[in-house]
Task: structure prediction
Amino acid sequence: MATKPHDPAKPVASKEELKVLLLAGLDSGEPTPLTEQDWEALRRRALANTEIRKSG
Result:
């Protein structure tokens, strides 16, 4: 089942879309440990998303 990638800036539209995204994540390959660089990138994205929501 091919689906277009989810835009992370938009909320998940339905439970079905969430289910598809979760299953795709489970089927995306072997897990890898998060590095400090990964955590920093996540923090930057979260902060940016927070700022976007505050301004809009």
User: Anything to note?
Assistant: The CA atoms of residues 4 and 49 lie 22 Å apart.
